[in-house]
Specification:
alpha/beta; 4-stranded antiparallel sheet; 19 helices
């Protein structure tokens, strides 16, 4: 599109995502504070940030694939498809899910090259309205519609964006008069305010000039809207539950065909409210508020294959900010539900890292806030999270939290650190002891090769069992149990007093007993402890 007078290209999309993430990072707390609709749960800013962070990471991954070649860059189609896909799989909450559909709608027009920004904004607004079961005026949808209507169809994207931004800003100012719950609270719609920030970032990416920032109006009466928000949610009033509305937010990705999704919408619409289903081409993001979370998930199973299922209870307890903070907490990233239970039992706040889905920095910051402590020890438990965890720690420090980042590279190192954690001793002493315990723990992991590849232990074939020690492939075998025994022997050859085994549910029957017996036979003075590794690979730690 660069050759016909338009200004949107792959580099602009990359800059847009980065600037939008920066803008939402600045406004996140204020957006959370004015979030009163459809549920006053104070997370709209956080959800929008996490959605855009996922979109930005997908775009950066596309550029990273091209970096080795100076002469070749991603084209516009690559960039906008990555942005839309990243937003879809990372969408959080009601507003984040709608934003994902807005970005998808824009991407469709830009890929088709069937009009510029004006056409893209109009497509985005119409597709978002179609995704919401019961659209309500005075929300992010109104702001999106106004932006599309105000954008002048023209070859000059900059002019169209200037008009769209002005139209969106005017529409945002009108939201308190359109939705009573906003008017009573004295605030504009939080989702609409977030969308304005995203549009402002696109305007800056295209023109090089940032629009004047519009600060959200502080909530006038924070306690009043909560009881009303569900009565005015995105459908006809229902019989309220004990909390005054549906008790759970359910979100999942779904692989399903179009007819199945039509049936799913009908089923979920009868179960709850705030129903938004976005996506297409066989992949969908489903969001709904319900009392029966299990029924909402079962409906997804009937429609196709739901995964990355998130169920959040609308907590009626006072927000963390209203409670006295604890002195110290530990935040740990864990790869499965089994280790999450183990770490939470030990007092840690956990962040779940699902296969192929490492948490974003915003999720780590949210966990630090959830811990609500003056001092936090952060355990990333993966080398790939080093920079993400550092960014989260820095953000938390700006909010007045004292954060120590221990660079644990495996969950077994995190377990070792958590085992010596003593919140009653001085912070520095506790951090030193935990760091020492983690550093003294060698870590191993068993994985299955997906394809032929060259490794530090030689050439492996698809289906081979790989034994990794301290992150490097050390053993290539055909059988999980025998390969694990070889890994254990190599790790214990340098000495050790305690072996930690994290055994997944899908491991062969008797694997834990066999490995324990193997350690006892060859290393009499070494103790073994076994943990449930539901959702995680087979992992080994030697202290």
């Amino acid at each position: 599109m660069a050759g016909d007078g338009r200004t949107i290209d792959a580099r602009v999309v990359r800059a847009w995502c980065a600037l939008a993430l920066e803008a939402l990072g600045r406004e996140r707390e204020e957006l959370d504070a004015i979030n009163v609709y459809p549920v006053a749960d104070g997370d709209t800013g956080t959800n929008l940030y996490l959605t855009v962070e996922s979109a930005a990471r997908s775009v950066e991954a596309v550029f990273a694939a091209y970096e080795p070649s100076v002469a070749v860059e991603p084209d516009l189609e690559d960039a906008v498809r990555a942005m839309a896909h990243g937003a879809l799989i990372g969408a959080r909450g009601n507003s984040g899910t709608i934003l994902a559909q807005l970005l998808r709608g824009m991407a469709e027009v830009l890929v088709e090259q069937d009009g510029g920004v004006a056409a893209a904004l109009r497509r985005a607004a119409s597709s978002a309205r179609e995704a919401v079961a019961h659209p309500v005026e005075g929300t992010i949808l109104s702001v999106a519609t106004a932006a599309g209507s105000a954008a002048v169809p023209d070859d000059d994207d900059a002019a169209a964006l200037l008009a769209a931004y002005a139209g969106a800003r005017t529409a945002l100012d009108e939201t308190p008069g359109q939705l009573d719950v906003l008017g009573r609270a004295g605030v504009v719609d939080a989702g609409g305010q977030g969308l304005l920030a995203v549009l402002g970032a696109l305007l800056e990416a295209v023109t090089g000039e940032a629009p004047v920032r519009r600060r959200p109006v502080p909530r006038a009466h924070p306690a009043e809207p909560a009881a009303q928000s569900q009565e005015e949610s995105q459908r006809e009033p229902r019989e309220p539950c004990a909390q005054g509305g549906p008790a759970f937010e359910v979100i999942y990705l779904l692989e399903a065909d179009d007819p199945a999704v039509v049936r799913l919408k009908e089923r979920l619409d009868g179960l709850g409210d705030s129903l938004v289903v976005v996506g297409g081409d066989g992949l969908w993001n489903v969001h709904v508020h319900v009392d029966d979370a299990g029924a909402a998930v079962e409906a997804g199973v009937e429609a196709g294959r739901p995964y990355r299922i998130r169920i959040t209870h609308f907590d009626t307890a006072p927000p963390a900010e209203s409670r006295e903070p604890v002195q110290r907490a530990v935040v740990a990233v864990v790869p499965g539900e089994g280790l999450a239970v183990l770490c939470e039992t030990a007092g840690a706040t956990t962040v779940l890292a699902r296969p192929g889905e490492l948490p974003a920095s915003g999720e780590l910051v949210a966990a630090i806030r959830r811990a609500h402590a003056r001092e936090v020890v952060l355990l990333p438990n993966a080398p790939e999270l080093r920079h993400t965890a550092a960014a989260a720690a820095e953000q938390a420090r700006t909010e007045g939290v004292r954060v120590a980042l221990i660079p644990t590279r495996s969950p077994v190192q995190g377990i070792a650190a958590l085992a010596v954690h003593e919140p009653d001793r001085r912070f520095d002493e506790d951090v030193v002891a935990m760091t020492s315990a983690a550093g003294a723990t060698r870590y191993g992991e068993l994985a299955v090769a997906e394809r032929q590849s060259f490794t530090s232990a030689g050439v492996c074939q698809a289906g081979d069992v790989l034994g990794l020690i301290d992150g490097d492939v050390a053993v290539i075998g055909k059988d999980l149990a025998s390969t694990a025994e070889t890994v254990l022997d190599r790790m214990l050859s340098a000495g050790g007093e305690l072996v930690t085994l994290v055994v997944p549910d899908e491991a062969p029957p008797g694997l834990a007993d066999r490995l324990e017996s193997h350690v006892r036979r060859g290393h009499l003075a070494v103790d073994t402890v076994v943990h449930d590794g539901a959702g995680a690979p087979l992992m080994i730690g030697v202290e």
